[in-house]
Amino acid sequence: MGRLIVVSNRVQPPADAGGGSVGGLAMALAAALREANGVWFGWSGRTTEVYTGQVALERTGGVTVATVDLEEQDVQEYYNGYANKTLWPLFHYRVDLSAYERAFSEGYGRVNARFAEALLPMIRSDDVIWVHDYHLIPMAQELRRRGVANRIGFFLHIPWPARRLLTTLPDHPKLVEALFDYDLVGFQTRDSLSAFEDYVTQVIGGEVVGSEATAFGRTVDMGAFPIGLDVDAFTATATGETAQAEFEKMQVSLAGRQMVVGVDRLDYSKGLEERFLAYEQFLQDNEELRERVFLLQIATPSREEVDAYQDIRARLDAVTGRINGAYATVDWVPIRYVNRAYRRDELAGIYRAAKIGLVTPLRDGMNLVAKEYVAAQDPDDPGVLILSEFAGASEQMTEALIVNPFDREQVAGAIARGLTMPRKERIERWQALMAGLKAFDLSAWQGAFVQALRGERSAAA
Ligand code: GDG
Which of 157, 221, 230, 441 is flagged as catalytic? Predict the structure, then answer.
């Protein structure tokens, strides 16, 4: 069986992925690659004055890691530009924040071509290639242009947007056409898959039969492959020494109060402002519960070079300041708002100490925090997950309290319900959620995708 080559924008060596890493993708891929004696190719995260195309190779944790440096202009146009100022907001339904410049799209094309050129000499004829995420949609096209005939799959970690949104993107058919150079295209949810099918049939006039889409004179296999969590590993982390120490530290700090927790990259798609306002609504509506609870929001700084991220950070500073100013007492602050990264094992202890996991993105491909929160709970006394209907995870995690994050009163009501939910109901919901997590965990996810990519089984969802 041929090797697995994974291509993603950033590469996180597996050896480092246990402790301090940030980003669901890094965690997911490290494990998948170890199993498949894989090669992981991507950007080093470093810039050089002039692009050299030189590939740095490193062997770590059973995986060959291959990286290239980019030029500053590449980073501005491809990464900060087309990926994070154009596609990310658009695919998260924020047409208002999506900025298009021709230079961005040229930079995007150029970097994809550079990656393909750099990867080319490493590809053996029986390798399968798995490309990840919106940064690299044209990767297969660039490899095909260079004569690569291997099986190539693409997985989109973020949502596929509704057709009316996607058509606001200049040159949208060009972007979609590039997907037809893959053998397999995977989405997180059936919802994204059907939005893609809708675009192909309604905008391009293509055809969808079973799990295959035909357009631009080519046929591609498609499927929904919801990313899972390495449940056993995370549960072990949550009951390990560091997590236990963190848990005990939190117990002291709780001082008999109950904690609601949010953990997110500081990103406008995560709905943090709406979350704080819903929590304020809860404080207003539930005077008797008010000082018995607090919200801990960990918001890890992210993409700070992009203006929209500076704006959301300033807005969050203001809204937490206002709410804390309005409600705090001498010995109680309603929102503990923290802008720093924690170790993964510390996070696990924090999740375990929280009565409610508040996961309310406005749009999210999947959301692994929801899964981590559940996996970290004490089976005898589990907390309650409140989950946005617009997180991909809500397709699977139906036993959570599912909310519309735009509906402040509904979210406020769910917080009150979670805090007072009888233990029996908490246990029943948690058991059902855990069974779902175990049935389709990280290794099932990568196994299903790679098998479908190798043509060993159908992609049909
Ligand atoms: C994209 C899609 C999809 C957060 N803060 C810290 C920290 N994290 C970790 C969490 C979790 C990961 O980052 C975040 O993953 P999410 O899935 O919630 O979100 P994105 O980063 O937006 O990921 C998403 C994912 O790709 C995978 O396909 O689910 O929809 O947007 O694992 O725990 N980790 C550490 N310290 C922190 O402070 N160590």
Answer: 157
Cα separation, 229 vs 349, in Å, equals 17
Q: How many CB atoms lie within 10 A of CB 120?
A: 13
Q: Which residues pair with 164 in a beta bridge?
A: none
For the stretch 389-402, pLDDT in tens is: 999 999 999 999 99
**d(C-alpha 397, C-alpha 403), whole Å:** 12
Q: What is the pTM of this model?
A: 0.96
Atom of ligand 1 at shortest range from CA of 188: 28
The atom number, within ligand 1, closest to the CA of 19 reads 39
From CA 311, how far away is CA 291, in angstroms rounded?
A: 30
Task: Say yes or no to pLDDT of 192 above 50.
Answer: yes
Ligand 1 contacts CB of residue 346 (under 6 A): no
Query: 255: exposed, middle or buried (C-beta count within 10 Å: 0-12, 13-18, 19+)?
Result: exposed
For the Cβ of 372 lying below 6 angstroms from any atom of ligand 1, the answer is yes
Domains in the chain (CATH in brackets) are: 4-228+442-453 (3.40.50.2000), 231-439 (3.40.50.2000)
| pLDDT, tens only, 116-174 | 999 999 999 999 999 999 999 999 999 999 999 999 999 999 999 999 999 999 999 99
Asked about 157 being catalytic, the answer comes back as yes
Query: What is the phi/psi pair of residue 42, to 5°?
Result: 180, -170
